[in-house]
Amino acid sequence: MSDQVISIIALVLVFAIATFSAAHLGALALVAAFIVGATVADESTDDLFAGFPGDLFVVLVGVTLLFAIAKNNGTVDWLVDAAVKAVRGRIALIPWVMFLVTAVLTAVGAVTPAAVGIIAPIGLGFAVAYGINPVLMGLLIANGASAGGFSPIGVFGSITNNVVERNDLPGNPALLFTASFLFNVALCVIIFFTFGGRQLLGQRVETHKGGGGGNADPARPDDAPPHGGQLVEAGAAPRRTPAATATAAPTTREEPLKLDGPRALTLAGLLGLVAGALFFDLDVGLMALTITVVLSLVSPKSVTGAVDRCAWSTVLLVCGIVTYVSQMERMGTIDYLGKQVASIQAPLVGALLICLIGAVVSAFASTTGMLGALIPLAVPFLLAGEVGAVGLITALAISASVVDASPFSTSGALVTANTPADQRDFVFRRLMAWGLGISLVGPLVTWGLFVVPSSL
Known about the structure:
The protein is built from 23 helices and two strands. The protein is mainly alpha-helical and 456 residues long. The chain has one domain.
């Protein structure tokens, strides 16, 4: 058995063990690099750490630490509050607000589990209160996280663009982000009408602030929840719903969140981070760390506990996978796999196979890990020039991320966990069916949209 085959088997075992045990995928990858390097590749410790992605480490720490501060000082809560108020009682727009807020969070550096973990309880609370299908709400939140994740400062985008740059491949960060966002929007339109969105059109919720005033309903009982609401069909009189009576949805606040100094400074920092990455080609990680230092000096309370909330698990995962893949490159495994894929007489079929593998595996494993592993494996295939690199990378990135709503993936698991107990089994089964379907359909569609045209 060749050294290259052994390294491939070790990588498969790493993903398999991480899937079916409590072992951390990043730690397993580092251990595998140590064992393979010592027993097969004859590498020293210095050789091993030469493949550690220091630049990617700084990006991940910087953007996730900045997001932790934004959550800590209430900037995230202010964004959610402002977005919900913007719908003015239109129930059909509430799932879309959750989609956009989650997309904004991941676009500015939040890791997907953190963003979904924050928004899922809020969104599913609205779903219970106003009769929205929890599958609809959960899918829009999960896909919102994927839609924003490929921004130039998002975690998915940072990983993908960094891997592309490290392997001297042509890249287009703006196209990757735009394509991912629009694809997820189109997918969510289908989800909206498939899972009951049509029934929400025309319905409104009358919200009430404590102390009376505004649009208060004179027929509302005194013991109704202060933040509850009433569904109003277009042209019909207000009516109470059991869900709205039983569950208080945070559609209004007694004391609305204000855009104070630290929050305004945080928003300005996030906008500056985006501008610096898009227009001045500044390093995202170093910019994010600079903003966190400024925030810590101006508003020390904003930073309290933020370092503990940094996504260290994701940092370990991505750096571990990239370190192991770097070792595979030094061993010649990447070239070996690339030649095997390139040996397929039909390059377009090989490209479709890569996208299918990425989608199916990501539905049961880590998307961040898959992005760090699969793109380098496709490098020799891409260098052959028969398939457009930008098109395939875009298709692969989208295929591996749109399956995150699977209940076996983190986003889907968080949605299921935040669903009321009496609906949890229903949501689990629907998400499982959706995840299986999109893992097969998604690669076919992205392949047809991005790979085929770039190869003609």
